[in-house]
Amino acid sequence: MTALPMVLMSDEEVAVYGRHVDAGFGALQTERGLLPLVAMHVEARVTGVIAAVELAQTFVNTTGTAIEATYSFPLPDRAAVHAFVMEVNGRRIDGVVEERGAAREQYDEAIALGHRAAITEEERPGVFTLRVGNLMAGETATVRLSLVGPLPVDDGEVTFRFPLVVAPRYIPGTAMAGDQAGLGTALDTALVPDASRISPPVLLPGCPNPVRLALRVALEDHDVRDVASSLHAVTTSKQDALVVEVQPGERLDRDLILRWRVDGAALRSSLACADDSDGRGGTFLLTLVPPSTATVAQKPRDVVFVIDRSGSMGGWKMVAARRAAARMIDTLTSRDRFCAIAFDHDVELMPEPGLVAASDRSRFRAVEALAKVDARGGTEMAEPLRRAASLLAGGHDDRERVIVLVTDGQVGDEDHILRELVPSLRQIRMFTLGIDQAVNAAFLRRLAGAGGGLCELVESEDQLDAVMAKVHRRIGTPIATELVLRGHPVGQGLDIESSQLAPGRLPDVYAGAPVTILGRYRGRAGAQATIEISGTSLGDPLREQIVRTADVGSPRALGASWARARIRDLEDRYAIGERGELEHEIVTLSKRFTVLSRFTAFLAIDRSEVANAGGKLRQIVQPVETPAGWEGGAVAAGPVGRASGAKMMQRSA
Fold this sequence. Notes:
- By secondary structure, this protein is α+β, with helices and mostly antiparallel strands.
- The protein has 3 domains: about 10-260 and about 595-650, no CATH class; about 300-475, von Willebrand factor, type A domain (Rossmann fold), CATH 3.40.50; about 480-550, no CATH class.
- α3 (about 315-330) packs parallel to α8 (about 460-475), α5 packs parallel to α6 and α9 runs antiparallel to α10.
- It is globular, with a radius of gyration of 25 Å.
């Protein structure tokens, strides 16, 4: 397979689209009018560690004919999308969750009959496609999505991450003949059969800002401190919240990352419960907060560092990856063994083609070799991870076996990689370090979760320094393992549905890294509802009871958060080859809790009138920004199809 550069809009296409500044803000114009997406408004409210977000995307048809706008966009991968609304011509149409195939059929039928309609589908955890059809000349449509989910807390720091761009991903495999699944720039392949649905066209660097962004986050806890934002923002204190508002003019080319610290004394293990309206069951959120300074007797370690040197890692990301790997290698002791693997479409092992003792000499040789690694080629990730697992296979129980992956995660074959790797991770811990301003967080969290490790994300070299202080002490023995949850005692305990915990594989606990577990219980939760946690801590039996300490603002929000976490587990099991009744279970959960999944879609149809009697319309694929920090905008992208999906294409009923 030949790796090709990322497809950008060509000079000829830019000439066609032109560069024109509309009154008030930057806009990109086609021969027939402006590109349809003109504004995005994000309103978030954080209560405790739960974030509720309302996202509004506004489309305007400035062409002289009916259009269908297609837009690929990201959302936080842990969040549950639980509501969908289309507003057009003063009417509000609430969306419903349908099985994905049925939703597409209903959407296509509505468009053919001339009705306005919108559909949102999940392509990957965190990657979505929106279509708005039969938007007539001069009309404006606003599509609103509501989402909710828990936020990560680490060493007293809370992080709210809201992605704003779907970055280009490397697409491996042989191109498939026949019709493509979507309208993207990449061809579908045997390894990524939906590549054309996750490869939107990309604006050339330097194009004027086509979308007006408004983003505001309200933090209900006034005791927060050290608030920091990756985008230019101002913070004001309101009566009921501390409000962080992004300044006008920011582009949709990176993740918004908002961090703040909370009082360490306020951080403690907690149990929140929310009964269902019928009283027959409910949802709980259990947060375990381990000490930040726990001392663990470390076992000797066998560690394989896997460093991505593909084209998308160019510039500061490659520098950061080399620094990170070198610092981790320097923390190894003489009791440890290690190997470093650098990869693109080739694989290189250093300092030797196998595990070597972490002597001063071998560590120096490895760091010296890493200093010469530079970005190039395609992101063929499955093979180096398979090699890493093979190096660690058959190790002794008295040694910790660890893989550390350093990458931006920009690959399209996530399911294939999980399917290849997960069976090998039963005795191996997997840690991931994501480096990018628009990182593929969902995939890196899936890998780390499958391997019982942790995922850390870095968007700058400054943040790398903060993260590395934590990473080196966590690559090793956890402070608690083999966790089991039980209701305790009868009368005050929760009647836990043990098969419905999320994550299904309860994580190990590392110093300073709180663990969040969502689950379902039967009946009602009493005021003193209690969960008992057992396991092994520092080699000794662990037994602890957590009494109900908190309530949640919205029982529906907690139920939706559990449903999404549970669906994510089921989707990962499906991805690695388990089939059976998983698809049916996912669809049933998705429809019951009104939460989007990969097998369902949100659909809204305005049947109040026939807007487009002929059923003919032009398709416009909204291009996305070049991710910030991508050197030269270049990435190996794999088989490439259309020169640009942003061209207008005729679609007839």
